[in-house]
């Protein structure tokens, strides 16, 4: 009986892994691809310390909860974190994105991913700190442009 339970549990776990892997190995729908490209711009603008360009990706009526804040913020506050990652001239901010899920609902796309960030010393190349966050953004296509209408992040480690 115990052997049968283990075999059934293994079979269910394997089936679950196959379903999850096949779900995220599929090609992205065209609007999911467009939104993922916008997410990449989001971080390119952050990396190059361009808060105005970063802010242009947000809808006028956005309400989001940045990882650095204790309460949700509107458009005038969502890009304030960018200068903070560049304030120490001896450090360089780096990142990597790991897409976890993306779903299209026509002119709305929801995306979930992990952001791995780390700071290195510009003098020695040594890693000074690192963190991983889970990020969710909801994008709306309006007037031919994708804009973030909601978002939230949280630190994982």
Describe the structure.
The chain has four helices and five strands, in the order αααβαββββ. The radius of gyration is 19 Å and the shape is globular. It has one domain: Nuclear Transport Factor 2, Chain: A (Roll), CATH 3.10.450.50. It starts with a helix and ends with a strand. It has a five-stranded mixed β-sheet. It is an alpha+beta fold.
The share of residues in helices is 25-40%
Mean pLDDT: 86
Query: How far apart, in Å, are the first and last alpha carbons?
Result: 40 Å
Q: In what order do the strands lie side by side in the largest sheet?
A: 1-5-4-3-2
Number of strands: 5
- Along the chain, the helix and strand elements come as HHHEHEEEE
Number of helices: 4
Low-pLDDT residue spans: 1-23
Q: Helix/strand-derived class?
A: alpha+beta
Record the SSE blueprint.
Blueprint: H1 2-25, H2 30-47, H3 51-55, E1 58-65, H4 81-85, E2 91-104, E3 108-121, E4 127-142, E5 145-155
Which features characterize this protein?
157 residues, alpha+beta, Nuclear Transport Factor 2, Chain: A, 5-stranded mixed sheet, 4 helices, globular, disordered N terminus
